[in-house]
Design a protein that fits this description.
187 residues, mainly alpha, Cytochrome Bc1 Complex, Chain D, domain 2, 2 domains, binds heme C
Length: 187
């Protein structure tokens, strides 16, 4: 009986030695840091819609629905608090780099996204026609700041300014507002 448990103990100790830290962990870490360079396609795709104010207005509606959270209402990322903190940062769509793309390349970027950055792919979410209208909006962006801050970020901005003592209005910090909601109390 006794010897049997000694053998068992010995086996467990041996097993413990074998399962020590595996090699090459650092190789995975290195691989993760390698950023893939992608080539933007669509250079020769023909834009089937006219480059007009009307089409830009239709595109603006789609843009302000889908793209606003990162690119702002105006495409310049106005009021988007994390825009400059993303890596790479959210592009100002009026910038030379972006405007130098052909219409087809802009459509390609919307359709495929840019991996591995934060720019998502819209394949299956927006149809071709909607994407081309958004391209029209990108060609007719309004001046920076002219459309204000997206509503989703307005409260954050107001509280931030309050914290910095910039607002002279009657804004109350959240903690001092009347507590209106009810908590469910189990009996
Ligand atoms: C989750 C945030 C996010 C959303 C939503 C988003 N984008 Fe982007 N977008 C980015 C980021 C980040 C970049 C910068 C990518 C880079 O430089 O690699 C970018 C870059 C771009 C570029 C320029 C690429 C370049 O080479 O600089 C275009 C054009 C663009 N986005 C269009 C759109 C359109 C149109 C929509 C809506 C259909 C949209 N984006 C929605 C984050 C976003």
């Amino acid at each position: 009986m006794r010897s049997a448990s000694f053998v068992l103990l010995g086996l467990m100790v041996l097993q413990g030695c074998k399962t020590g830290g595996g090699p090459n962990k650092f190789e995975n870490a290195v691989a993760k840091q390698v950023k893939q360079k992608i080539t933007v396609g669509g250079r020769d795709w023909k834009n089937p819609i006219e480059d007009s104010e009307e089409n830009a207005t239709i595109g603006a509606e789609h843009f302000q629905h889908h793209c606003m959270v990162c690119h702002g209402l105006d495409g310049h990322a106005t009021g988007v608090p994390f825009a400059s903190k993303m890596d790479p940062p959210v592009s100002d769509l009026s910038s030379r780099n972006v405007q130098d793309y052909t219409d087809g390349q802009l459509k390609w970027i919307i359709q495929n996204g840019i991996s591995p950055s934060g720019m998502p792919s819209w394949e299956g979410i927006l149809d071709d026609n909607e994407m081309w209208h958004i391209v029209a909006y990108i060609r007719h962006l309004p001046p920076q700041g002219s459309l204000g801050i997206p509503a989703v970020y307005q409260e954050a901005e107001a509280e931030h300014e309050h914290a910095e003592g910039k607002t002279k209005g009657k804004a109350q910090p959240k903690s001092r507002r009347k507590h209106t909601h009810r908590h469910p109390h189990p009996e």
